[in-house]
């Protein structure tokens, strides 16, 4: 029997030399640290103790410690060199580093408020004989160390979904055919990889592949498993430590396996999202290989990373909300459907409405120079999981429990100040005397094409009392909890898809501007506009379309574009038992998908940055304001034939050309997708910034306005989608300061 290997020996193969070698390695990792921090901080508590497992250089642990002075950070790493370097380089009263194997019980049970595993769990499998059993033990120990309500976040790699085998075409002309790996062509590097790489699916031999002629000049084609292709794509640029990288199997679980592992342990999944890092896509994927199915159709780029966030809930509590079944709604009890005819065109519009008026509250306070907001965390919104048969463009999955502002429906005739005091007490446990100041409301339409809803949103300065209660209301086992969140960290999470509620984001932007506080750096996709000559003129009426009342009620029935449905949503615990079964009414397009895209056209000229705005006449606007006209960003429901986010830019380009006579130069994802009104519809919105040709923009029916002017006048904007993309574009281009 072989002697037992010590913990230090198990991971010894990872050792990269002396302190200088470690510094070089960690410098490369830290380039993406902003994104890592953004994807985690919006979910972690602001007080308590959080363990950063596999803390490495300590930079990310230090960043978290700097963000929250009331949060104790403990960095854990197996390598004493890493721990010594981190302890010397990063020192704070709320920060310490310890040596330990993250798969072992490093912390006592119920002693942590958060656990972060950032790009580290693949080490647990790779350096333990590719053992998933060791990984399961690791997760057991980490979840056991969490207190109830604690958060565990895993950011790692993912076994991609797709066909089992693929064509991978790699260039032969960008390097040598043989020699040191630093100088090899990508194709030659792949053949070295295939010869030497070992993992759980080819432990004892090379990666199987077939080499063929490629239809792409200067390339060679390989037929191989998608999983193996992804392993090579992920590491092809890590040549400095190539031999060490070959020892690690990056992908060990699929998204479904991650989610099942969380639910088995009583974790409510707050977010489960494949990540396609914009910088990696632009600099390491685009133009550097071709990936296609065996039918020849190009495949979308595999995820560059994956994030899953779980909350430890009490035994027997719900961990998932699913739509058990749905059916057309013949006799609505909650929602109502009406039809409106346009006087000039005769076009008939459908509107869905729920009773009462929607109010959003954003309680906030300052502490130690930071701005915190109170939000509802883990609130059950089962409708976000409706229509599972519609395309999932980004691959993200939600448990149905979301983070959102304190939202409620006001009673008829209830005075705003009375309603606000009531809602704060009922939904956050805040007494009326905790209100220090109440701001003027902002009004916006959440989904003006089909939802008759205008939100009134208030900023409420409060005096925070310790130990907020969490009142329960509603039909499910929990109504979530009220948590304090760092305002700027929530915005950063929105930049990279870590938060999904648009209204929380909008109100935080309003709050920071009200306080004169910078939102911090933009960390989404980098938007690089090219200065063009000429360009469209500033339209003085861009935000103030002419007032017209052009709609009247249509009594001859509806046109059948929208469907009202009733879904039965079941709440399940960790063992799969049904805890509650609740009907919910919602709307969905009859033919289109639940996905919407919004695209903000933009040009840069010598005169500055200008964006294009559309004027539309909509019945919901007339219903609330007496005039049908609204300044909006171009937006479209997406067809169900679009199944991947990579297909959306071409759709946008076609629509902008046909409807506005503009030519697209380049398109960028403008932060993560969002839900605008998840209490009524599962609509999921995908925002984009679209650079267009300046000359063609001159003849477009779009109204053009300087971005700085738009930002200064956002209080006059009532289209929630235009608000989201305007704030994000201004943030990305540095207009917000």
Automatic annotation (TrEMBL):
GO terms for molecular function: methyltransferase activity. InterPro entries: Methyltransf_11, NUDIX_hydrolase-like_dom_sf, SAM-dependent_MTases_sf. Keywords: Methyltransferase, Transferase. Residues 52-154 form the Methyltransferase type domain. One of its GO terms (biological process) is methylation. SUPFAM superfamilies: Nudix, S-adenosyl-L-methionine-dependent methyltransferases. It holds the Pfam family Methyltransf_11. This is Methyltransferase domain-containing protein.
